[in-house]
């Protein structure tokens, strides 16, 4: 029964598409104009889309197959590129479907065509629109992905130009405003390694580096598995990751601040220290990690000979550590270790004999203190 009305359906849709039926023409023109205003699209473009939709419905009925609306994907791309939200865009497509069905119902009633014809027509339009919506959505999302990648690339390039000092001053200030940031504010530079339970998007969201407007706290670039950038406040926590951060500076001083943040990050990475770290929080560790050659030499001189003695060597090393931490006072060291002062003196003498140094010399004490600041993992690796 439905098949018997197929040619009628094609004929009526052709008349609606051509808008040569007075009872339908005014309705089509009026509703298309209203849809164009609501969706903020060109009248001629929307009229073209309307024709393509009905043509696809006609071809679908003739071939008894679902024919794609050829321009659906392209129309979706245009909607995304114009800044139109997906919900607004889909409402436009649904509006066209509703108009097509209402026009079909209206014309079928005027031509005194029975209900089964209308059902057949609705089925044809629904089938075509289902495919059209899929193609439209695919075009929209493809354009969104391309736009996000382009914006991300532009942001990364901008951030690196600021952090490396290659940005033009006027351009930098203008683009800061575009990201919702104040060019007169102080910023903390940072370099970070995202934790295992967090991706880049979550990390940037947590630090307030995503979005637009007043809620945005900074801007970042993702490169080589790291996130680098600057923000109006230092990160409070690094989560399970690692963040090297500078102090607050003006935009023009961010390159030197970023170098400090990078040095803190690299030192913490080598030392295996997680969380938010700065040169101030790392102290001497940053200097030690910054010159591994000296660390290797001092480790070989002061630690390796004692480590080779096993548990006894560890005991001697702990005595030296306690002695230095207590300002080289034997009696205080003895109290801290629950030993007799003569036992402390004996152990220090033993250390001097093994290492061939004098614990009375400032140079020995300084170098010994320096090497004892090395993280245990590094000192053991050299032993």
UniProtKB/TrEMBL annotation:
Signal peptide boundaries: none
Pfam families documented for this protein: HTH_30
Coiled coil regions, renumbered to chain: none
Stretches assigned to the PucR C-terminal helix-turn-helix domain: 316-373
Protein name listed in UniProt: Helix-turn-helix domain-containing protein
